Structure formats: structure tokens, C-alpha cells
Amino acid sequence: MMIFRLSLKALAITVAVAALAGAAFLLARPQPIESAVLGADWECSQTAFVLTTCPPRVREAIPAVETSRKDAIRATRG
Fold it and tell me: What is the pTM of this model?
């Protein structure tokens, strides 16, 4: 079995590559941004200061079971 010893230069290169990879990872995360042009119905995010995406905001859905019960109660009262 061979044991490789890292030289100081190889260790410095490894640390530098790890630091650059960490910085790239932090920059690549989507960051929420405000879009006054689109209004409150849109949720925008920007990735790495380059790519901006703006999907519509997801509204809270009402389960179908609750709406069918309300409709049934209204129909019988009526």
C-alpha cells in the first residue's frame, strides 16, 4: 500500500479550489428580488446575477371537499 504525501503546493491548490467552489455555490443560489413592474402577483428570483425568473405567485388552494360541502349546504337551505 502506497501513502501519498501532499506537498504544500498541492494542499494550497486544493484549498483554493474548494474556496472557489464554495463561492460559486453561494452565487448560484436563487435570490428573491422585488419587481415593481410586474406587481404583487409575481415572485421573482435572480440566479448568479444573470438569470432572472418570475413565476406567478402560488395562491393557497381550497380543498375540493370543503367547497362541495359548502355548495351542498347552500343548495339544501334554499
Answer: 0.42
Distance CA 74, CA 70 (A): 6
User: Helix, strand or coil for residue 75?
Assistant: helix
Residue 32, C-beta contacts closer than 8 angstroms, at least 6 positions apart = 43, 44, 45
Each residue's pLDDT expressed in tens, for the chain with a length of 78 residues:
456 676 888 889 999 999 999 888 887 777 787 777 777 788 888 877 778 888 888 777 666 665 555 555 555 555
For residue 53, the surrounding DSSP H or E stretch is strand 51-53
Q: Residue 45: helix, strand or coil by DSSP?
A: strand
Measured over all CA atoms, what is the biggest interatomic distance in the chain, rounded to whole angstroms? 87
Cell 339544501 maps to which residue?
76
Please tell me the number of Cα atoms within 13 Å of 44 on its side-chain side.
13
